[in-house]
Amino acid sequence: MLIWWVDKFSLLDFPGELSCIVFTVWCNLRCGYCHNPDFVLPDNIKNLSKNLIPENIFFNFLEKRKWLLTGVSICWWEPTMQKDLYDFCQKVKNMWFKVKLDTNWVNPEIIQKLLDDNLLDYIAMDVKNPLDNYQQITWIVENMNNYKKSIEIIKNSKIDYEFRTTIISWTHTEDSIEKISKSIFGAKKYFLQNFRSSNTLDKDFIWKCFSKNELINFKEIASVNVWNVAIRY
Questions:
Q1: Residue 55 and which of 3, 29, 65, 206 are 20 to 30 A apart at CA?
Q2: Backbone dihedral region of 151: left (phi > 0), alpha (psi from -120 to 50 degrees) or beta?
Q3: What CATH architecture is 3-232?
């Protein structure tokens, strides 16, 4: 695993668990609002490689936290692109920690395999835009069948999960929120996250945040299709 950073303690990232957060590097997408461009672009990652945390250092840390932590959250920037993600999750589970995975949907096969082998306890998946307009945000042409596969795999899983959208005034409207919520129809949880302008991949990506009333309106629209919709300010 290519580990850039470990947040040693979090009460918020993994619902119901005391967790540490493992930050990986590399991503298949190029979202203009990404707040961590240094860990997305290949040339930047090469320059950072000497500062990556070796796995044995992380597992030594985890061994010392057995009585303090209950979970490990694996996130940023797209963990399923890590070729040894499965083995990493297996090692964490063998130490009796729960595992949360954050993903952008690109690799439904590895998500399914991890679920089949009971190596995940929670999944958080980004749904960035309606299916017919995804590239507007990601800048990359991807196989959107994988998007639909990942949604169905997660919805049909036996573990807890959430879907989430970072909403931006530049692209998101009442219509797009309705389409996104329809694409995850019947999901347990859906979070709307307000965009904040800070150190973005696209340096010109400066857009105003939605107001509280606008967010509440989006929440009501999405609630028609999703059981539990909440706002993260």
A1: 29
A2: alpha
A3: Alpha-Beta Barrel (3.20)
